Amino acid sequence: VMPEAPEALALLRRSGVAAFATPESCADAPVAVFGRRRPTGSPAVHPDPGGRSRVLDEDESYRLLASVGVAHAPYAVVSTAMPSPEMPVAVPAAVKILSPDAPHKSDIGGVVLGVRDRDGLAAAISSIVAQVSTSAPHVGLDRVLVQEMVEGVGEVLVGFRHDELAGPVVVLAAGGVLAELPHDRSVRTAPVDLATAQDMIDDVVSLKAVQGYRGLPRGDVAALAE
What is this structure's pTM? Predict the structure, then answer.
């Protein structure tokens, strides 16, 4: 609809006619239609969203993923009220604030790495409580997650949510503290089969680093796809 005619555009759209304000947006439409990728296979699980989606804390996430066979590094949930907790996992360990309200834990002082004994664990808990209570007072401080640190691996972010419009959605990106910096990610509607998972891995430019790029060690990409 040209030149600019917002009322005509609105009338056409209300009447169910595909209408566009620019040639560029009109051209985008068939590109999107022919580029659409339908979900493959059948969902392995059928989660009940129970209304609006919500963010899970790490403990809830690990338990959900474990129920469908996704492995994780050993961890334990420890109360911050314990005066001298024992080391519940092998060392070195990472200690992290455990709350669904703290998705970016390092930003608020909620992470201590390289903890090796009971005294170090107690000190890490005290440090996390002190820093998070100042930087993010809305975050609960009653629990921390203590997890065995795994070295020599690439970090990858895999996310899942039940979107109100699109349904179940899976996202893949490079992990670690730089996960959201480059906006380098791949998104698909679920379910995702192995071929689609491999396509997603190939889409993420950052993950070339774990696929033998310029002689770098090749990671277990097949396990990531699985």
Answer: 0.71
